[in-house]
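Supplementary Methods. Inverse-folding protocol.

Structures were first reduced to a discrete structure-token string of length 84. This string, shown here, constituted the complete conditioning input.
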């Protein structure tokens, strides 16, 4: 039971870390055709795109979807881990 708890917690932390890496990459120049960056974008887009579809059109150039994703992932993590 404890082993499953640790695995689930680590998966949620990994997802949050990948989103944070993507946010940092948006601030620095990088090669979008790099295979690792492309993989990172594919993984995080599955989480961020539904949030972006739900949000109204951006008034500024600031993307709020990673912030909302962090809150939602943390909320889901707490709910799932409380079940175990």
């Amino acid at each position: 039971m404890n082993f499953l708890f640790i695995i689930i917690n680590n998966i949620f932390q990994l997802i949050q870390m990948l989103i944070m890496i993507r946010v940092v990459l948006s601030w620095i120049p990088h090669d979008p055709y790099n295979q690792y960056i492309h993989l990172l974008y594919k993984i995080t887009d599955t989480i961020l795109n539904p949030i972006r579809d739900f949000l109204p059109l951006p008034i500024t150039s600031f993307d709020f979807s990673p912030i909302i994703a962090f809150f939602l992932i943390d909320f889901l993590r707490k709910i799932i881990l409380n079940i175990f």
